[in-house]
Write a structure and sequence with these properties.
With about 300 residues, the chain is an alpha+beta fold. It contains 7 helices and 13 strands. The strands form 3 sheets. Strands 4-7-8-10-9 form a 5-stranded mixed β-barrel. It has a 3-stranded antiparallel β-sheet with strand order 11-13-12. It is globular and about 70 Å long. One of its GO terms (cellular component) is MCM complex.
Length: about 300
């Protein structure tokens, strides 16, 4: 099923019948019910997946209407800073407290540049960071001087905010920069605890090996309550996870168990989000206590009994 068929069929109830909405909000599970491939595409290649959704809406008469996907699966939802580089380019949900709210500014989502040699306009999509200029002119193919052309650029509201990990005992809790566009601007205030779904990405023009990241927001949901696990409990999640692997592993030669079963067990017993458990598994593997296999199984690789204590 393509987006147009989805919006005409199973997702049609998310379209308002009258008026022109600022955006169309769709819970991710509804996309999954409509079409598994579309749902996967949204998670793994959100830039293209959501662009497709937006252009399908355009064809249906909803011009320039962003699709706001929310309610991602738990395995995709993290506290600030608990996701790794493997999440780059993908759609994730991040829960945290809004701590810094920038002014709403006009920002070129797509900037038009006029070639000073031949006058041809070249359009370059922008990320919200430094202005990206074309490498060369689409007309004369020279890398000439370019002039930014406001009238031909697509300019929308833009706001930069920061999200901080909640309930942290650290002096400097992790913070993630978040870019809000269009109707998402001016919807949060400092102190709000929110879950923001967005594309985890790196800013252009990096000048250090440690990459500057940000979350390009797709949707915002205000949380009823803060994230389930507080900062002091990171070590507890590692302990619960290790214990679960230990307990579920049968005493055979391989001494392993299904990773899925570990995640379900810790999630059921302690109410921990899947992303947190996956992060704990990664930590345990980094500490050479367990080893995860491509076949979805995990086994213990230490013969001693590790101790788990608070990090701070
Ligand atoms: Zn030119």
């Amino acid at each position: 099923m393509d987006w147009e068929a989805a919006f005409e069929g199973p997702l049609s109830r998310y379209l308002e019948s009258d008026g022109r909405p600022d955006s169309v909000r769709v819970p991710w599970p509804a996309i999954e019910d409509a079409d598994r491939d579309l749902a996967d595409l949204v998670l793994e290649d959100p830039d293209n997946g959501l662009k497709g959704a937006r252009s399908a809406l355009s064809s249906l008469g909803y011009i320039n209407t962003p699709v706001r996907v929310y309610e991602l699966p738990e395995r995709r939802t993290y506290r600030v800073g608990k996701y790794g580089s493997s999440a780059l380019g993908e759609l994730i949900g991040v829960t945290g407290e809004v701590v810094d709210v920038g002014m709403v500014k006009p920002c070129a989502r797509e900037a038009a540049f006029e070639c000073q040699l031949c006058g041809t306009l070249t359009r370059v999509p922008q990320s919200g960071g430094d202005l990206l200029e074309p490498g060369q002119c689409q007309g004369c193919e020279q890398s000439s001087a370019f002039r930014f052309h406001l009238g031909q650029s697509e300019v929308v509201d833009f706001q930069r905010i920061e999200l901080q990990r909640t309930d942290s005992s650290m002096d400097d809790p992790p913070v993630e920069v978040v870019f809000l566009w269009e109707d998402l601007c001016e919807t949060v205030s400092a102190g709000d605890v929110v879950t923001i779904v967005g594309t985890y990405d790196i800013l252009p023009d990096q000048d250090e090996a440690v990459l500057e990241t940000y979350l390009d927001a797709v949707s915002i949901n205000k949380s009823e309550q803060p994230a389930t696990v507080d900062e002091g409990a990171d070590w507890k999640v590692r302990k619960w996870t290790f214990d679960a692997v230990d307990r579920l592993s049968t005493a055979g030669s391989s001494y392993d168990t299904a990773t899925r079963e570990v995640i379900d067990t810790v999630s059921d017993e302690h109410g921990v989000a899947e992303g947190e458990i996956q992060a704990a598994l990664d930590d345990l593997e980094g500490g050479s206590l367990i080893s995860e296999h491509r076949d979805g199984r995990v086994h213990i690789t230490t013969s001693s009994t590790p101790t788990f204590e608070p990090d701070c």
